[in-house]
Amino acid sequence: MPSVAKPSVAMPSNSRMRRPQVAHTLPALHRAIAGLRGRGATLALVPTMGALHDGHLSLVRLAKQHAKKVVVSIFVNPAQFAPHEDFSSYPRTWKEDVAKLTAAGVDLIWNPQVKIMYPEAFVTRLSPEGPAVAGLEDRFRQHFFGGVATVVCKLFTQTRADCAIFGEKDYQQLKVVTQMSRDLDLRVKVIGAPVVRERDGLAMSSRNVYLSASDRAAAPVLFKTLTASAKRIRGGDGLQEVLDDGAREITAAGFALDYLEARHAETLKLVTSKADGPLRLLVAAKIGTTRLIDNVKV
After folding, report:
1. Alpha helices of the chain — where are they, by DSSP H?
2. What is the pLDDT at residue 90?
3. Which one is catalytic: 30, 56, 66, 143?
4. Which residues, at least 6 apart from 21, have a Cβ–Cβ distance to it below 8 Å?
5. At 228, is the secondary structure helix, strand, or coil?
6. What's the distance, CA 253 to chain centroid?
7. 8 Å CB contact between 93 and 50
């Protein structure tokens, strides 16, 4: 079952909450990590771009189950935005983010500036293949996974984390960073966390704030179509028939569809039938000015 946001609960007063350490420079980060590592404590990393919502906080909760100490990075990574995309307007909510991470019991926030992550002489970038060139997000955002792999590799080496938590909503990204960590012997265990959804099924995303009222009302069609399509495939209906029907439903709801595809859940390779599984259904579509992605297990 998908994870659904839980009702808000009263938080302890500020006097009872310990504000996380905040590092803005590499020396400060390394000092803080050394302190957290005292007595052999394990460390989990939750990479984010800020504008935190309950989906991000679910990653923090999972991180606390896997490690003694938790560091959350907040860095809006310019390397994964194309010139026409929303880097400059991407929501930045620092004070609110710190308050949420304080309430969640995070130990350290890593918040570097762009010049720290990409200094003037920076010339090395990763060019991942495999799941990064599966013909899904990479068809529409050719720059994206190179930027993701580069910044995540830096975050892994900067924090020396034992594990890192990534949400399954960005499913192709999860597979890319998992493969990267394995291929480069980074010794960071990548852990996927279930998609957290609004009560009507819409996957939580920082970009949901861009949705107009009418677009927000239509947005749950993506999840509804995915779940209905997965049920049909499990029941024995042909893949192409199901995908064609799903594409028509999504388009009829007002979306401009980029893709609705069934892929092998681990490799993201093309499949032709349920027998090629395990399968994952993945969708990307734009409504109004907002592009949404989602996926479900078959």
Report:
1. 26-36, 54-66, 94-103, 114-117, 137-140, 144-159, 171-183, 213-218, 221-234, 239-252
2. 81
3. 56
4. 32, 35, 107, 108, 109
5. helix
6. 25
7. yes
- Structural element, H or E, at residue 190: strand 189-193
Neighbours of 282 (CB within 10 A): 21
- DSSP lists the bridge partners of residue 102 as none
> Three-state DSSP class for 242?
helix
Q: Which has more confidence, 9 or 166?
A: 166
Check: CB of residue 285 under 8 Å from CB of residue 256. Answer: yes
Catalytic annotation present for 66:
no
- Return the amino acid letter for 64: K
Bridge partners, residue 90, by sequence: none
Number of Cβ atoms within 10 Å of the Cβ of 115:
9
- Residues 211/288, Cβ–Cβ less than 8 Å: yes
Q: Are 231 and 241 in contact (CB under 8 A)?
A: no
* Contact (CB, 8 A) for 215 and 189: no
Residue 270 is given by DSSP the state B
CA pair distance 94, 51, nearest whole angstrom: 8
Starting at the edge strand that comes first in sequence, how are the strands of the sheet with 21-23 ordered?
Answer: 21-23, 108-110, 69-74, 43-48, 163-167, 189-193
- pLDDT tens figures, 204-234: 998 999 999 999 999 999 999 999 999 999 9
Task: Classify residue 251 by burial, with Cβ atoms within 10 Å: 0-12, 13-18, 19+.
Answer: middle
